[in-house]
Design goal:
about 140 residues, mainly alpha, 5 helices, about 0% strand
Length: about 140
């Protein structure tokens, strides 16, 4: 049995991965801020790890919205800015709440690995957040 993938389908797949890579790269600035901020809040200020991560997630959601709107999802800039931001923040906040619950649960068993767990969650949730973001920004 032969499988045939049309040129059109190949182009759609290429376009998807191009946008997905841009999406991942757009998250790098907030990740670069988030990791040291989380370390600082926990190690220097003595914040609870779960509380610190929650604060960091809110900052990341906000920063990511602006970066994604400007550099990744340019064609949809005609949408109402406030409406787009509120939908993005609310939807991503739900994903991040699930992220935060998973993070907190795993950190309770492996507290010394909280930064590695944070990075793992980035990988786990990136594809879901990409698909959602694409529809609201």
């Amino acid at each position: 049995m032969r499988f045939y993938i049309s040129q059109e389908k190949i182009e759609k797949i290429k376009l998807f991965f191009k946008h997905y890579i841009k999406f991942l790269l757009a998250g790098v600035p907030s990740l670069i801020i988030a990791l040291p901020l989380n370390l600082f809040l926990v190690e220097s200020l003595g914040f609870n790890k779960a509380f610190s991560y929650g604060l960091v997630l809110c900052l990341q959601i906000t920063l990511n919205f602006f970066v994604l709107k400007k550099y990744v999802f340019k064609a949809s800039n005609k949408r109402n800015f406030v409406d787009s931001f509120l939908k993005f923040f609310a939807g991503i906040a739900i994903f991040r709440l699930i992220d935060w619950i998973l993070y907190s649960f795993i950190v309770s068993f492996f507290p010394g690995f909280y930064i590695l767990i944070q990075l793992s969650n980035v990988i786990i949730f990136s594809s879901i957040k990409f698909r959602y973001s694409k529809n609201v920004i």
